[in-house]
Protein: Fe2OG dioxygenase domain-containing protein
Organism: marine metagenome
Amino acid sequence: MNKGISMSAELSCREMINHDEYPIDELENKKRRQMLEKVRRELKQDGCAVINNFFNNAGLDALLKEAKEQSEYAYFSPRKKCNVYLGEGDPQMPEDYPQNIFMERTNGFVTADLFNEESATRRLYFWGPLKSFLAECLEKTELFIYDDPISNVIVNVCKPGQQFCWHYDTNEFTITMLLQAAESGGEFEYIPNLRTPESECTEGVIKVLQGDRNRVKQLELKAGDLQFFLGRFSLHRVTENTGNIDRLLLIQSFAEKPGMIGSMYRVQDLYGKISKIHKVYEHDKNRPDKLLD
């Protein structure tokens, strides 16, 4: 794998973003306050918010270059059929139960361990002003680095003909940055707040899987956009990439308390590898809810 330091190491994190429009490290700036209000309003409305053109050309080029360099090492799971929980089926439940409905998932991932500490990708993830800004947008007292060494900052690779089926996220919220859009297809669709921490809302999930689009929303993202998404409770997918180039999406994951990582089964399935910490975690799971995933 290629983990060498590129020209992107010369760019500071501040220099990667459209700082004049988005002065996220200037706490008293009026534009920053307006951004916070916008994101909070959109998240409360339907669990999704977007800051358009968050990255400038230099920043986007640096992140895209690293993603492309590592995309040849992306892991594509041999298990191409998944349910919405990205887990196993339940033979004790009916065939039309969500756990037993399996769909096509053909996308892959560039994992966090493929990016070195000097990369723009990792430096941006650990940049304090960004993490603080994200926490304020999400109205969280503090955000912690997601302690999963495989999946805390990854690139979702969706090649032509590939897709990511309907699913829920392990984290309550996810931060994504589109680095390269598909020429056609590759659209982000979601159903806001379909389940709650107390209920799987199974009937609603079944309706969506049977083709009901009454609550489905479609989001048009462009390269350089920053997206906030509450994917723990909102069912979502990426439709088939019908163009000729890869769709590349940078994903940053954070947690509200330290020590959070993905389950051993899910990490192995999605990313093709686990670390020692995943084995320890299986014996001491640290989840705030009792949902299936």
Notes: The domain at 30-281 is CATH 2.60.120.620 (Jelly Rolls). The first helix runs from residue 13 to 16. The chain has one domain: 30-281. The two ends are 31 Å apart (CA to CA).
